[in-house]
Amino acid sequence: MIASLRGTVIDIGLNAAVIECAGVGYRVIATPKTLASLNLGEQTSILTTLAVREDSMTLYGFSDIGDQEMFTVLQTVSGFGPKLAMTALAVLNAEELAIAISTGEAKTLQRIPGIGKRVAERLIVELKDKVAQWQPAEVEGTLSAKSDSTTDFAENAQAGIADHVVEALVGLGFSEKQAAGVVDRVLRQQPDADSSAALRGALAELGPKK
């Protein structure tokens, strides 16, 4: 099991980075949030989870242990593999997922590409009692008051996507002001876009970094 990597960042892409450790380059799938914490040519330390299949071995990387643990918990749900778990964490972080699951916000969970009504309801039923550790204390004490919070939470989720994508663009060398303006425009045009789609749209508008 490869539990972590420490080395030099030699490449950063839309959904993965390559980290060179002792002369070996490891490709790590990661969310925009994690990719934004990396800088080309600099040393980094990243948490990893290795997914082994008959035909492949894939490394998933995390800058935050909470996201790594949520990645594992999500996969305890039937039909929820590592790719879908990573997609979920690209849209909502561990705390946001915990709040949505605990408060029964199925519509918020359906914002994640690949998650329909049935899967969202399954997440709520199977994980509701397993996600308390990721919830802020004030949320745990007020779950009964959350019945009308779907719209607000969805807006917060989109704001979270915007923050993650802006961070990723800044990590790629664009200014924060430039990135924020483009991301805001992309999300207004594509309100259902996840982090990866928003990042692709923003890069299409910005073009290659000069």
From TrEMBL:
Region Domain III, annotated ranges: 155-210
Keyword annotations from UniProtKB, A to Z: Cytoplasm, DNA damage, DNA recombination, DNA repair, DNA-binding, Hydrolase
Location of this chain's protein in the cell: Cytoplasm
All copies of domain Helix-hairpin-helix DNA-binding motif class, residue ranges: 72-91, 107-126
Major subcellular location class: cytoplasm
InterPro entries named in the record: DNA_helicase_Holl-junc_RuvA_I (IPR013849), Hlx-hairpin-Hlx_DNA-bd_motif (IPR003583), NA-bd_OB-fold (IPR012340), RuvA (IPR000085), RuvA_2-like (IPR010994), RuvA_C (IPR011114), RuvA_C_sf (IPR036267)
Pfam families: HHH_5, RuvA_C, RuvA_N
GO MF terms, alphabetically ordered: DNA helicase activity; hydrolase activity
Function description: The RuvA-RuvB-RuvC complex processes Holliday junction (HJ) DNA during genetic recombination and DNA repair, while the RuvA-RuvB complex plays an important role in the rescue of blocked DNA replication forks via replication fork reversal (RFR). RuvA specifically binds to HJ cruciform DNA, conferring on it an open structure. The RuvB hexamer acts as an ATP-dependent pump, pulling dsDNA into and through the RuvAB complex. HJ branch migration allows RuvC to scan DNA until it finds its consensus sequence, where it cleaves and resolves the cruciform DNA.
Family matches, as NCBIfam families: ruvA (TIGR00084)
Quaternary structure (record): Homotetramer. Forms an RuvA(8)-RuvB(12)-Holliday junction (HJ) complex. HJ DNA is sandwiched between 2 RuvA tetramers; dsDNA enters through RuvA and exits via RuvB. An RuvB hexamer assembles on each DNA strand where it exits the tetramer. Each RuvB hexamer is contacted by two RuvA subunits (via domain III) on 2 adjacent RuvB subunits; this complex drives branch migration. In the full resolvosome a probable DNA-RuvA(4)-RuvB(12)-RuvC(2) complex forms which resolves the HJ.
Comment block on domains: Has three domains with a flexible linker between the domains II and III and assumes an 'L' shape. Domain III is highly mobile and contacts RuvB.
Family as reported in the entry's similarity comment: Belongs to the RuvA family.
Protein known as: Holliday junction branch migration complex subunit RuvA
Gene that specifies this protein: ruvA
